[in-house]
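In line with agreed milestones, the collection of sequences with tokenised folds has grown. One record among many is set out beneath this paragraph:
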Amino acid sequence: MKTCLLCWVVDDSGRIASINSVEAAQAELAQVQAELDGFGTEIKIEVLTEVRTGNPLDEILKSGEVHDISAIAVCPGKGGGLLQLTVPSFTNALLRSSWHPVIHFPREKS
């Protein structure tokens, strides 16, 4: 059996209360988990979910250590245009910091 861990990190550095964000993240992960469980392949995949709060980069790396993962898959956020040029890239920071292989899924342009 193969295992897939879906991890969502709620950044607690902002001024907005993270309780609603944690609940929203859990709901979103539950929906994705249900979609992945619905794939009727011959290889059964166990889908686990985890919601963490804190610094996203640190928490992703900690989760990788705790769960002994094989790789990290990441897709960039919705930012684009000037915002994309001015905000540091989480994906780039993850590539520089991770001991695990990082699989980058570029966002489709619409």
Notes: Strands lie at 2-10, 45-53, 72-74, 102-104.
